[in-house]
Amino acid sequence: MTRYKSTSMATAILVYLATGALLAAAAQPPRNIILIGWDGAQRDHIKEMIARGELPNLVALSKEGTMVDIDVVSGATDTKAGWTQLLTGYTPGKTGVFSNARYQPIPVGYSIFERVEKHFGDDNIETRAMIGKKGHVDNDPPTTIPYEKWEKQQKKQKAIDKKKAGFGDIPGGVVTEENGVKVVKVPGKPWYNASQNMDMFVNGLRLNEAVGAMALKNLEECKDKRFLFFIHFAEPDHAGHQHGENSQEYTDALKSDDEWTGKIIAKLKELGIYDQTLVYVIADHGFNEGESGHRYAPYVFCASNDKAINRNGTREDIAATVLKRFGLDLTKVEPKLDGIPLDEPAPERKAPAEKPVTEPGKKAKAKKAKAKAAATGTTNG
Q1: Which of 22, 126, 192, 299 has the fewest C-beta atoms under 10 angstroms from its C-beta?
Q2: Same domain, yes or no, for 160 and 177?
Q3: Total structural domains in the chain?
Q4: Is-contact 174 86, C-beta < 8 A?
């Protein structure tokens, strides 16, 4: 009996020590973090594919950590607003990036890339972005355009957007006069400031294969360094706009995202740095069910090997989680983040089933459109 008690006590001590060691290890900041963006990945479509066994790498990553629902509760369900929120932790009121058409450069220092550069020191972390899209995840400088030229561009892009929602890159701007000539001052794109303070910012790669190949090359280059990578796959968004959310092309594009996610994880393991790396698969917006646009598509997700994540959240919570994992004191971040780390309690923030109408001038129009939709049996996303 005594020997049994002694053995039990020894086992308990070993378990206690092992648990303590695991907790201590979990409390240590990871050396690396990778954010893998699946642009335009609708949450319900992802879950349907998981049920059919079509996203094995996403499932494997989630089993190491978790997969949670992410809702869009502020800002447009589009690319400019989405990636800005995800990679800054702020709602549009602080960044000035409200939608693809209403934006400005993100203020200097607000992105997670700039914050970790400041925290660790420029020479102590690599911040690199490899981006499939050119438009909407862009870093063009401010420009001044003659009004007539701008007006022609607007008409052309609106015509494109009318045929395929989301394809028209319609820049906003301020109409003014310079030396008696009417011009439009177009603001710099959202990533204009941040990209100048990063080690690498490459966009317009378009195809998943080009993005993935560059990602693997950069992992090899940075295997002995601390890094924060943003790897952005654009093909699901392009396929959704061209063929619709319920198309085989959209499904195939998401399968491609999953394959490349698996290759990135395999590369991390080959380099011997996976155990030091947190991986987050995230999306900026979804798609209107069965449609080719995302006028209001607020349902996305986050899948990660981060075991500490314990709740659903919103887009801005991703940046807060990343900064906390890297050891930043969020109470000292200025201005205060709108996001809350996904391992901390937060009020429930759910996107409503229908887009809220906040502008008084649009209420009557929305009511009329809803009545028309009900009468014709159509839906308006």
Answers
A1: 22
A2: yes
A3: 3
A4: no
